[in-house]
Amino acid sequence: MMLTTDLYGHDLISTQEWDIGNLDAAIELARRLKRNRYGQPYSTILSGKTFFMFFYNPSVRTRQSFECAATELGGHAQFLEPRSMRLKTAKTAGEIIEDAAKVMSRYACGIGIRILEDRISSYGEGDDLLREFARWATVPIVSMAHDKYHPCQGLADIMGWAEWLGDGVQKPARLEVLKGKKLLMTWGHGALARSWCSVQEAIIIGSRFGMDIAIAHPEGYDLDPEVLKTVQQNCDKQESSFEITHSPEKGYEGSNVVYSRNWMSPNAYQDGEFLKQAEIDRALKLKDWVCDSVKMSKTANAIFTHPMPIDRGREVTDEVASGLRSCIYDVAENRLHVQKAIMVLTMGNL
Amino acid sequence: MMLTTDLYGHDLISTQEWDIGNLDAAIELARRLKRNRYGQPYSTILSGKTFFMFFYNPSVRTRQSFECAATELGGHAQFLEPRSMRLKTAKTAGEIIEDAAKVMSRYACGIGIRILEDRISSYGEGDDLLREFARWATVPIVSMAHDKYHPCQGLADIMGWAEWLGDGVQKPARLEVLKGKKLLMTWGHGALARSWCSVQEAIIIGSRFGMDIAIAHPEGYDLDPEVLKTVQQNCDKQESSFEITHSPEKGYEGSNVVYSRNWMSPNAYQDGEFLKQAEIDRALKLKDWVCDSVKMSKTANAIFTHPMPIDRGREVTDEVASGLRSCIYDVAENRLHVQKAIMVLTMGNL
Amino acid sequence: MMLTTDLYGHDLISTQEWDIGNLDAAIELARRLKRNRYGQPYSTILSGKTFFMFFYNPSVRTRQSFECAATELGGHAQFLEPRSMRLKTAKTAGEIIEDAAKVMSRYACGIGIRILEDRISSYGEGDDLLREFARWATVPIVSMAHDKYHPCQGLADIMGWAEWLGDGVQKPARLEVLKGKKLLMTWGHGALARSWCSVQEAIIIGSRFGMDIAIAHPEGYDLDPEVLKTVQQNCDKQESSFEITHSPEKGYEGSNVVYSRNWMSPNAYQDGEFLKQAEIDRALKLKDWVCDSVKMSKTANAIFTHPMPIDRGREVTDEVASGLRSCIYDVAENRLHVQKAIMVLTMGNL
After folding, report:
1. How confident is the model at residue A182 (pLDDT cuts 50, 70, 90)?
2. Is the model's pTM score more than 0.90?
3. H/E element holding C146?
4. For residues B46 and B72, what is the distance between their CA atoms, to the nearest angstrom?
5. ipTM of the complex, rounded to two decimals
6. Are B174 and B127 in the same domain?
7. Rounded to an integer, what distance in angstroms lies between the CA atom of residue C186 and that of residue C203?
8. Does C79 sit within 8 Å of B76, measured CB to CB?
9. Same domain for B172 and B138?
10. Per-window interface: B 83-102 vs C, CB < 8 A
11. Is residue B10 part of a domain?
């Protein structure tokens, strides 16, 4: 049975912009691709086709999983570094995005873009860049993580959580199993001054599927107010709860999924510069903010999740990260499957 | 119907070195590949084969289109950066080209090389490098743009011009439509100090197919005298005209194709150094040299062409570049099709 | 006839760790793949599969041949540079190898790693890194050259030597032809301060197949004592001879295979730094240590071998390197075939 959706040609910049039915279809297809990883008809569905990957920021996991995804669908992903692109900026001569996007649309079946906090001069610029590409490209633009969102991570997250909270991997539960489960998104200290993208995507997609959302972070680490508003609206629609606390412990109570991750503060940018070292220095002092087994014992036998790579010992202890309730490797694997599903639905010769 | 040519194993360093019949065959095949982009028998003709791409200079368009070309033919293009090659030079220990080329011929079905003005210490060195590789390699050497020529751009140009000057893309005219049409190659000011390669290739291949050639540039921006001599000989043979003017306007009269592009002066190299900033400073003052709609109104309803990326506002105005008579995106797309055709003819399992 | 071995899932860090029967099987399969390079069933045996290549050190030959190998088997090799990996080190926050290896095992069918002397702070660290990856990965780890060993080069060497010492390429001799032949491994001066890996692998695998081993090097250029002990044990088992001399000439007498190669001294590391320039300065003074035709005239019509790239004029003269008894290009080609064989046997869908 082939899935029918109306996703051919669609961009994926945030999951919030996709209908819930389409998100369901993407996860359902990802599950099939996980069961039958190299089988027909999907193994040749991108035959001869090329997906462009633009990495303003380096990446291992994202690059590996996208390039594998294209290969497993019979296509090819090109690894491109924009430093060689000579795009026009305020300061330098170069090509305008309209020209770049229109030509690339003649060559590629889709374009992925990754641009994070340290390659821009203020929050939101990365999102603007993706939308400018999407405006002109006639092929799908897919976020491979940008300053605001990380839709592929969000899809991998909910796919993995449903597997673990349902009847297990062999007979994965539908996404309905997430309804009414409590997601704790807690800040963790660490030495990496991380982007908001994975974190914001997780609470957006979690709330979309009816999870109760609890955010815990130290004072001064607020996320994007617009995203928080969206989460509140999602929760209102689903009649689920949404709370924000500044206690490193309280949020654990009753949680089903614990997501501990470092993120930067809203003050990270000053005068157009990303002050990474100042962020790190500040974060490293907040040593109470670590997910450990004592805190986990207060949960409703929660699973531990993280988009990886993990800053072990700071975001989370080894005991939890490598424990029996850690779903990190399954979620990481799911990146591959959801990205294949997205490519099939938005770019495939169906 | 399969095409029969004698091109298997041939290098492509300049189109001038290929028989006119072979150039015709390449364009004819490119047209078929454009109509039937992913179809048999060409979609598997490089199955299992590898094309090496050596980028002494970074590139987006060229890299994307060559890598797509190999993928669409069922093969794979490897992106290689010679900085990791440790070739022997006057100053450093390393491998001689003979050894490199002989070994690579055991692995690859062809080798593409890109080397432009800022990676060499005098004009002509890039061309010498390609010919040294061609001397030893037993597989085709293809220029992906070097200091003197850019054969794939030239082929994409004439394919696109014939489409626009003939009966349109759906029923593209043969190359004979170019005979007697006037090509204006005009210098444009700009901030990029560009190579002569695309420009020289265009007037060489245009004159080969019977176009009248007009070159316009400020005093002091002469192109390679050897190339100009070749153009004169081509024009003599075709009984077409060839003129050079130093007026930014005069050449537009009666033109059918206008090609406005910045290029460096012959004084760009001094004592083995490429003086990029001095070139840019000098060029930026010559603001009269821009292709705009006033000038275009003097032509015979000419199409506007450019190899891209465009330095908009300096080489050409937005109004012209994005106007109804701009063929830039079609020419850019044709890069893919002509490169596929070249690979099929010189490397394919026919 | 398909080969049956028990190699599926096995690592290849040194050939010494593989049964002799498995090495035989790998070479036998490499021979078949050389005869029928693009044929079934091997041309699709990695269909949809991805091999990860981690290059801590840049490389041309190794990268080209591994990436070609995956392509020729229907799969794809990803070129990855660990500088973007953010692995945890003594000094920096990052991901632990356990996490990296476990996730990569979900994506890839195998992982190749290259790490040489100048990316580590003491000899043996590269080998430790490979073994740490192998500990956690559930897919094969293959050395693409590391500080201690270079198994793929070793296999290409013996395959090439057997071709040249037997009845020729068309009807290649079995590896038994190596038994009783004398391999001279001689140091050559040069400006590259090269790794021990190719050299150590050659004497290990040569001795394994019954060759008499002679090592010649200036005082102060001893190889790894542990490797020398292994060579001695191999020779004892095969009842062949093993000698070390410090004469630049004596070892040539009676040799069947001459391998002249520069290598670093054991003093190259001091306080965790690799003192490359000091090594080069010292080596360049030892000009007697070059393989030339006078020395070659003392051999038993020996073939000349080298893993390339060659530092011509220092490690060996042009006359010898390009002479009729030089097997360098065939050995280089064999890298492709043995690597394909290794992939088929350890990762293939057999």
Report:
1. very high
2. yes
3. strand C141-146
4. 9
5. 0.95
6. no
7. 11
8. no
9. no
10. 83-86, 88, 93-96, 98-100, 102
11. no
User: How many residues comprise chain A?
Assistant: 350
C107 and C177 in a single domain? The answer is no
- Tell me the CB-side half-sphere exposure of residue A232, using CA atoms within 13 A: 8
Q: Using CA atoms, how far apart are residues A213 and A179, in angstroms rounded to an integer?
A: 11
In a domain, B59, yes or no: yes
User: Which positions in chain B touch C61 (Cβ < 8 Å)?
Assistant: 103
| Same domain? C47 vs C96 | yes
Q: Kindly list the residues from chain A whose CB atom is less than 8 angstroms away from the CB atom of residue B116.
A: none
The alpha carbon of residue A93 is apart from the nearest alpha carbon of chain B, in Å, by 6
C309 occurs within a structural domain: yes
- What amino acid occupies position C347? M
DSSP for A41-68, written as a single string: TGGGTTTT-EEEEEESS--SHHHHHHHH
Q: Which of B64, B308, B332 sits opposite A52 (nearest CB)?
A: B64
What is residue A237's three-state secondary structure? helix
CB contact, 8 Å: A50 with chain B?
A: yes
Alpha-carbon gap, residue B197 to B47, rounded angstroms: 32
H/E stretch holding B105 reads helix B97-107
CATH number for position B98: 3.40.50.1370
**Domain contains A82:** yes
Q: Which of A59, A191, A329 sits opposite C93 (nearest CB)?
A: A191
pLDDT tens digit at each of 350 positions of chain B: 455 678 999 999 999 999 999 999 999 999 999 999 999 999 999 999 999 999 998 888 999 999 999 999 999 999 998 877 777 776 777 889 999 999 999 999 999 999 998 888 899 999 999 999 999 999 999 999 999 999 999 999 999 999 999 865 545 568 999 999 999 999 999 888 899 999 999 999 999 999 999 999 999 999 999 999 999 999 999 999 999 999 999 999 999 999 999 999 999 988 888 888 999 999 999 999 999 999 999 999 999 999 999 999 999 999 999 999 999 999 999 999 999 999 999 999 77
- Domain range for residue A141? 15-149+334-347
Taking CA atoms, B138 is separated from B10, B336, B344, in Å, by 9, 24, 17
